[in-house]
What we know:
The protein has 12 helices and 10 strands. It is of the alpha/beta class. A hairpin with a 2-residue loop joins strand 4 and strand 5. Helix 1 (4-14) runs parallel beside helix 8 (206-223), helix 4 packs across helix 5 and helix 5 packs across helix 7 (176-187). Bound molecules: adenosine-5'-triphosphate (ATP).
Amino acid sequence: xxxxxxxxxxxxxxxxxxxxQASSVLSVRDVRxxxxxxxxxxxxxxxxxxTPGKTVGIVGESGSGKTLxxxxxxxxxxxxxxxxxxxxxxxxxxxTTLSPPQWTALRGITISAVFQDPASYLNxxxxxxxxxxxxxxxxxxxxxxxxxxxxxxxxxxxxxxxxDLVYGQYTYELSGGMLQRVLIAAAIAADPQILIxxxxxxxxxxxxxxxxxxxxxxxxxxxxxxLVVVSHDLAVVAQLCDEVLVMRQGDVVxxxxxxxVLHDPQHEYTRLLIAEHELYGLEKxxxxxxDA
Length: 292
Ligand SMILES: Nc1ncnc2c1ncn2[C@@H]1O[C@H](COP(=O)(O)OP(=O)(O)OP(=O)(O)O)[C@@H](O)[C@H]1O
């Protein structure tokens, strides 16, 4: 079976991108985000660097600014919200200098995202495969027939059984896990360098969640895809991330390699998060890491 990763690999190679290349594809430096309607700063300085094949996790309580940080890097902040400090560079370009057409060109091709609730990002009246084919057609300039073929390959690559059948189905015919795979297929359809997964597996049951996380890890390893993973679930971060930022009320209270942050948390809030997560299997993961 050809995987998406295998089918992407030659194109990656032609771009000269490899998993161990060290230059940043996403550089977030002291980013501050404010609600300009009331002048309130909500995110008080977030910094991280993302290189090909690397995964940065962002954890923290609800409302701590994780999603706003992601949306700032995608140039899709809600109305009234603005980046009021710091810089975001995508593939070397400062995003404040990008015109709307430049943003359109960048989205999907360089940076892409998957959020929770996949159904709300797919059109219920268009077959899911056709929606992916459309992304391929517009972003990669493929002809209709080639775009269809590529969409089927993508559906196969995200481990959907019988991709030809799924291609012709509508959202209501698919389960949550299948829809999330379809959305991931659409998000990676134009071979982005960066994928932001914001609570992408939160709504899924544990088994499906594990499969989706494996899929992301597989893509990363094979293609050098760089990932930002937002999750309230430390076990997800432990499984996938090289580095983790812990956010609380708009501040990054701790940032470091995942194993140090989880084994030797320096901030009281991180210790609290870990204590809460022990119930959900994090202890098992930490024990496995120590055995290795
Ligand atoms: N569209 C919006 N309109 C008004 N306020 C918003 C909007 N989006 C976010 N906020 C506010 O900004 C703050 C940070 O929100 P954000 O969504 O980034 O948090 P989060 O850490 O992702 O939380 P969650 O885990 O619940 O998604 C919150 O106080 C939230 O109320």
